[in-house]
Structures are given as C-alpha cells and as structure tokens.
Hints:
The chain is an alpha/beta fold. It is built from 16 helices and 16 strands. The strands form four sheets. The chain has a five-stranded mixed sheet, sandwiched between helices. A hairpin with a 2-residue loop joins strand 13 and strand 14. The radius of gyration is 41 Å and the shape is elongated.
Amino acid sequence: MTPVPRTVTAPRPAGTAALTVAQALELPALAGARLAAGGAGARRGIRVANIMEVPDIIRWMRGGEFLLTTAYAVRDDEQALTGLVPELAARGLAALGVKVGPYLPRLPAPMLRRADELGFPIVELPGDVMLNDILSEVIGTVLNRQALSLERSQAVRDRLSQAVLGGGSYGELVVLLAAETGCAAAIRGPDGALLAAAGDVPDGAPASVTRPIAVGHRSGGEVALWAGPGCAPDEEWSTAADHVASLAGMLAVQERVLAERERRYRTLLLTELVSHPPRDRAESARRAAALGWDLERPRAAVVVEAAATPASGDVRLTEERLLAAARTALGAHTPAWGTPGGLTALVAPDGGELRARCEELRRAVAAACPGRAVAVAAGTVRADFAELHLSHSEALSALALGRELEGPVRSFVRLHEESGVYRLLDQLPAGELQALVDDALGPLLHYDAGHDGSLVHSLTVYLRHDRNGVEAAEELHVHYNTLRYRLKQIERLTGAPDKDPMRRLQTELAVHAHRLLSARSH
C-alpha cells in the first residue's frame, strides 16, 4: 500500500445534478445497505460507479467514484483494508461500498474509525446483494440526472440568451439568475461596485459563488450568488453563474463598442462644426439633435489644456477623466470631446457670464487632474452655429496668447473678448503683423540674435509697467542702472521712439504683435 498522505482532498460539494451518497442509499438496489462510517461525507457527489477486485485499481481512480468491492483480495489483511480508506479519500472518491458476507464477515473497527476521522463514507452492503445491480442502477441514475441537468442548463442558457438578444441589461440578467437559483444575485464591476442586484444581497458578506466576467483580456467584474440559510452551493448554480458571466461579458463588449462608435460620431460632428461652416445646416442640426444637442442656443467654443508640471506626478490625463469633469461643470448635455492634452466644448452661457462658466470648468478639471496647469480659453458667443468655427479659432488664439503671456505652467482663464488690442491685431494677416514688427523692432531683434541679448524682452516688461523703471528692473531681476543702459541701447537702435507719439504707438503695437506671433508659432 502507498503511504498515507498528509492532506486529504475533499471532493466538490454535490449539487442537484449529482447523486449524493445519501441519495444513493435510497435506491432500490441499495435497500439493505447502511452508512457504516464517514457520515460527514454523505453529501459527496457520485460521478460513476466501479467494482474493485484488486487494490491496484486505485491508481486509475479520478475522483467521484462509488467503489464497490467484496474485499476478497485483502480479506485476511485488516491493516491493508484500513489503509485503503485514506488512499481512496485522497483520490477524491465518493464512497467505498464493502459487501459483508462469506469473504468478509464484518468491517474492521480501525477501518471505520479512520473513515470517521476523514469523513469518508463506508457503505456496508448485505451479503446477498448483486454488485452488478448496484453498479447499473447507480450509473443509470447518475446519467439520468446529468441528462436532466444538461436539459435544465440549456433551458437556463436559452432564457438568459433571449434576454440579452432582446436588448436586456445587467439588471435583467441578475433577476433571471436569482429566479433560477433562488439566491440573491449581483453583478459587480472591476472595482467591486454593485452594477445590478436582485434579492437580498448581504452587505459585506462573502459570496457563495463567484464567476469572473472577462472583457477581452481585461476584467469586467464578477457575477456573485449568496446562498440563503440552510442552502449550499450546487453545480447548477455554478453553471447558471457561468452563463451569466459569459453573457455579461458580451454585454460589456457591446456597450464598449457602442460607446466608442458614439464617441467617434460625436467627435466627427464637433470637429466639423469648429473647422468650417456646415455644408448642410439641416443635416448638421439633425445629427446634433440625435445626440441630444440643441445647436440653436448661442454658444462659444471653449478649449482646455491641462499641462504637466513637476507637481502633477503620475496623474494620467485621460479623455474619460476630462469629459467627466466637463460634465460636472457644464452639464451632461454640453457638447464636449477630448483633444490631445485637453478638451474642447461648445458652452452656452444661458444668461450667465461666459467667464464664470469657464472658471467653473477650470476648477473642475484642476480637481480631476491635480498638479496640472489648467488653461481655459473661450471665443466669442455665436448665436448661429454656422459661426462656431470662428469662435473656435478665437479660442485657440486666446489660449496660445495666454500661454505666451502667463507662461507654460500657469493656470488661467482667458476670453477672446477680453483680449483688448490683441483682438484687433488678431484680425491682421501674419505678413502684416511681421511687417509691423520688422519696422519697429527689427534692429532690436537683430541685436538680440547677434549678442544673445534681451532688449525686446526688457522693452516689453518696461512698457507693461507703464514705463516705470523701478518696477520693470525688479521683474527683470536686474539693477536699475542696468535697465537704464538697455533703454539707452534701445533708443540708439530705434531712433528714440518715445519722442514721437506716432512712433511710440507703433512701437507698443509692435511689441504686442511680436508676442502674438510668438504665441501663434507655438
């Protein structure tokens, strides 16, 4: 005999489809049999029945067998007979039926004690019973139960599949699952959140049965069942849960495909609206209405950029995160879509100030993406959606200008209508702007390029502080005399523009035009 193993593998709990040892004892062929030991394992499931005449057959056992024997080969070896018990239990057999009669007058007490210790059923068979009768009846009953279980399983699968094909949801699936099993049922998301439930789902109690939901190569959550008092999980519950998990995975994939299709459809329409006038107004309005958007309301194009800073760490900038923030600030029906590094929205002020809506949007995005520099820029409000492309162009210009004026890692809100002289300059072609810059600042730009200088920057700061040299020097972090020296150089190179009002105005406009061109180049 082989050594007794240190651990014993118990078989899976039996279900309604399986024939348990206790149920087998109620069959006519086993009318005179009794459970002599191992009563704790009476609910073990029988997969098949077999007859053992020699101990070597044990090596071929796969688990779930109801093994019948006359014990002829070990009739005179009580120790060998007792040693069979742990071997059979370790193999996961359902039970051992021993015929008591001419070869074995009684079952050895050590054998029965060992069976009780391991919870392995020993069935005492009467001497006049025919093992073939037991074999055929047990196998026939098991096959009948399996056939019935398959039939019921297929019926459950059909009902669940029909629910999904009929446009069913997670909620309908768990309702059907709860009805089929008599258990509380739920579908939980990958984060453990309850997506749908039926029955009295206990709070915090572990589920009796769980089955993972696969969505491609990622987890889509799980299906869970909770058995009521006095109930134990069975195979049909597991099978039903498997069906629901499979169908829930299909639903998740369908939802993802539909969401992606709608996202592309939405993005395509919005991109068209901010790129050029609609080619067919009626068609654009119809497509927008299908998405729940009212384009007849006055709107402004608003662009958001969330730039990484040293404080942003590993916070991922995802479209879902940004759109969720936009919905929080602007409402679920505001057209919005993700762009590289940010998002764009068509915002309706609805009687409120556009700046207030933009400030609210900036706060929501900053809260969703902590540590990032959130810049929000808006074009002018347009009553005709055919002009939204103009508002979008204004918003992009305001954003670029804001980054130039504020710096690349600072948060701000900038409206095109508040851009002052830049609104006028922005109407000019780039060639006209460049000509203005070359005429007024050309010598300074040439000097800076050849001497790694900063005359143009110093002049810009000086003008921004309304020609206050002390304040300008403080911002430039230079001594006041250094700034005076630079201003002398500027006067020498440009011909003292301060002495001519027209030249002075041209110089100031050129400084702003230079900043606008720099912003456009970024």
